[in-house]
TrEMBL record:
Keyword Oxidoreductase annotated: no
Protein name: ABC transporter domain-containing protein
Cellular compartments annotated: Cell membrane
GO cellular component: plasma membrane
Pfam entry (one): BPD_transp_2
Region (Disordered): 376-398
All residue ranges annotated as the ABC transporter domain in the record: 408-648
A GO MF label: ATP binding
Keywords noted in UniProt: ATP-binding, Cell membrane, Membrane, Nucleotide-binding, Transmembrane, Transmembrane helix
Source organism of the structure: Dactylosporangium sucinum
Transmembrane segments: 55-74, 86-108, 115-134, 140-161, 166-188, 208-227, 248-276, 288-305, 312-333
Membrane topology: Multi-pass membrane protein
Gene3D superfamilies membership: P-loop containing nucleotide triphosphate hydrolases
Length: 648
């Protein structure tokens, strides 16, 4: 049976071979002019760099596929013939159709392992419908519909049960396999309408069949949606960090369910076209299919961990598996040896891939070679100039102008959690252009206070005035729209997305190709990013660097710049300098100072006294839910602040 597949070892792998881009120097000097990355990037590089996630340049894999093809063409007589290549295309068409959905699921950080038995179940149901009704249109409609329903069921369960999608879909894999046997009583189904079988066997161009054309169209459309459209970027963001994506406004739950449903529908399309071609179907039709699909995707560079992978890599992955499977049959290897050989080649390819991935994380192959020769490669930190701490001091970053009007005033805030009084009548006030540092030991109530100010929680008593008006926000979105922006240290940015894509995530500019097809407007996104970074004087020479390649200081600075897009009046920063060295801290604080000097009010939460004396205009010290000191920073010494925090 042609859909029988190799049993590949599925291992997590990540990213690409070409995706490394140097973080480059990030200098906080005078505000830079608009950055136009597009000018400096070559045409090809520009096209790939503006795709989300990291590239899946599978050069090694393409070479392997080519080498296998040449080897089989030489060693098997009939391998290099139009007929056998067409058969190979047919065999892989089902994989190509389903890998489109599976690629999207994996990139979104989830997986559906039940696609093999789902394929069987849809195939037997569509087969029964074809036999019972003798209607080709009904069969063609029912297959994808049943698949979509099964996918939807998987998606809803993954969403509602909130347990690993691997576990949920292993359970449904078993159930679907059983149901497929129940539907047919374990027997094969045949006797389909001739028009259905004609559709399955008709060649459209030369020897290229309908199934191959459908597969290519589906893959091309799916790949395009992933790398060029707004929903595609959101899928990549979810896989990179679903909490950060959700904080940026991505509807993670709904998108997950939609992806499972589309994946199921594609399984339905593949199963229906397969029964049309074979003219018969049994409950084991899809056995092992999931391994072919998942191996093709992962070999093609889609990271099992989510957030990475490109369609071009995946299509090479599909081709490699197709060539390998067909070639082993052509050279006459017995089935069991075919399985052993397939597994061995896949494990070797994945191991080579992991090796390259690891060297890339430490600066790429070139750096590894340099290190081996005893010459040190420049590190990201040395390049950026904001990493080393030797002899660096924070110094004081004085305010450039007078303070403005009061932006936010909270009075008598109280919040109880059962018997714990987290806030016991807290007053805080911050003015335009002011940096207010909020200090306090663990459990003092700092997080509770910022949750209330940012709309994530409600106070039990007390009032908040924002821009002179009393306000109560019932969501962070409301507070955000009003001009209160909060930057949490850990969920500010999606690490696997570039600076530009992080900047626009949740509010991506779009344009229409030929006035019809909506795609992300990369030029507008790059412009918006450049303007945002320039506002705080942050320079990143390559805005298409993925965030995980930036230094900690750069990441925080970019997160702050991103938060103020669209007009912020108050920015709340949750420990932006925690775990940073002195130079990186200074780099971030310079951005904070510039933010305040531009007229924004800033509340900065910190445990670090040095940060306070570098940037604060005023301080408020919280202890056990009360403000035990507040006032200008100049009125208090370092020693007194430490004693106040400790309650001495
Ligand atoms: N959801 C909650 N349920 C119960 N108690 C809570 C909750 N949130 C906070 N608390 C309690 O309220 C008090 C203040 O907590 P909060 O997290 O605001 O302190 P914090 O100053 O931010 O501390 P840290 O610096 O450790 O984050 C603590 O005693 C904490 O245990």
């Amino acid at each position: 049976m042609s859909e029988r597949t190799p049993t590949g070892t599925v291992m997590p792998t990540a990213g690409d071979l070409n995706g490394h881009q140097s973080a480059g120097p990030a200098v906080l000097a005078a505000p830079a002019g608009p950055i136009d990355p597009l000018r400096r990037l070559g045409r090809w590089r520009r096209r790939t760099a503006t795709m989300p996630g990291e590239a899946s340049g599978r050069l090694g894999l393409a070479v392997l596929a080519l080498a296998l093809f040449v080897y089989f063409s030489v060693s098997a007589e009939n391998f290099f013939q139009a007929g056998s290549i067409a058969t190979m295309g047919l065999t892989m068409a089902s994989v190509l159709i389903v890998v489109t959905g599976t690629m999207a699921l994996l990139i979104a950080g989830t997986v559906d392992i039940s696609i093999g038995t789902m394929f069987s179940l849809v195939a037997v149901i569509a087969g029964q419908i074809a036999t019972a009704t003798y209607s080709t249109p009904l069969t063609l409609l029912a297959g994808p519909l049943v698949g979509a329903l099964l996918g939807l069921a998987n998606g809803v369960m993954v969403r509602l049960l909130k347990i690993s999608p691997l576990i949920v879909t292993i359970a449904t894999m078993i159930a679907f396999g059983g149901l497929a046997k129940v539907v047919t009583g374990g027997l094969a189904v045949s006797d389909f309408p001739p028009s259905l079988m004609r559709l399955g066997r008709t060649a459209v161009v030369g020897q290229v069949s309908v199934q191959v054309i459908v597969a290519l169209v589906i893959f091309a459309v799916g790949g395009f949606v992933l790398v060029r459209t707004r929903p595609g970027l959101r899928v990549y963001a979810m896989g990179g960090d679903s909490r950060a994506a959700s904080a940026a406004g991505v509807a993670v739950g709904r998108t997950t369910v939609a992806l499972f449903t589309v994946n199921g529908a594609l399984v339905g399309v593949a199963a229906t076209l397969t029964i049309a071609r074979l003219g018969t179907v049994d409950p084991l039709t899809g056995q092992g299919f999931e391994f072919a699909v998942l191996t093709a995707a992962i070999l093609g560079g889609v990271a099992f961990a989510g957030g990475s992978g490109r369609p071009l890599g995946v299509i090479i992955g599909v081709a490699t598996i197709g060539i390998l499977q067909a070639g082993l049959i052509f050279i006459g290897l017995r089935d069991y040896w075919q399985e052993v050989a397939t597994g061995a080649v896949l494990v070797t390819a994945l191991a080579a891939d992991q090796l390259l991935e690891r060297t890339r994380d430490t600066g790429g192959l070139l750096a590894a070679v340099r290190r081996a020769r005893g010459r040190s490669a420049p590190t990201a930190e040395a390049e950026t100039g904001d990493g080393g701490d030797s002899a660096a001091t924070l110094g004081r970053l004085p305010r450039q102008g007078p303070l403005g009007a009061t932006v936010l005033a909270a009075r008598g805030l109280r919040r109880d959690f059962g018997s714990v009084q987290a806030l016991r009548g807290v007053d805080v006030e911050v003015r335009a252009g002011e940096v207010l540092c909020l200090l306090g030991d663990n459990g003092a109530g700092k997080s509770t206070l910022i949750k209330i100010l940012s709309g994530a929680d409600r106070a039990d008593a007390g009032t908040v005035e924002f821009l002179g008006e009393p306000v109560t926000y019932s969501s962070t979105r409301q507070a955000r729209d009003a001009g209160i922006r909060t930057v949490y240290q850990d969920l500010a940015l999606v690490p696997t997305l570039s600076v530009v894509h992080n900047f626009v995530l949740g509010d991506e500019p779009t344009r229409r190709i030929a006035g019809v097809v909506p795609v992300r407007d990369e030029a507008a996104a790059a412009r918006r990013t450049a303007a945002g970074l320039a506002e705080l004087g942050i320079r990143v020479p390559d805005p298409y660097t993925t965030v995980r390649r930036l230094s900690g200081g750069q990441r925080q600075a970019v997160a702050i710049a991103r938060a103020i897009v669209g007009g912020a009046r108050l920015v709340i920063l949750d420990e932006p300098t925690a775990a940073l060295g002195v130079r990186q801290t200074r780099y971030v604080l310079e951005a904070v100072r510039r933010l305040a000097d531009n007229g924004t009010a800033v509340i900065l939460i910190t445990h670090d006294i040095k940060t306070v004396f570098a940037v604060a205009d005023s301080v408020a010290v919280l202890r056990l839910g009360r403000v035990v000191h507040s006032g200008p920073v100049d009125d208090v010494g370092e020693h007194s602040l430490v004693r106040l925090m400790a309650g001495l």
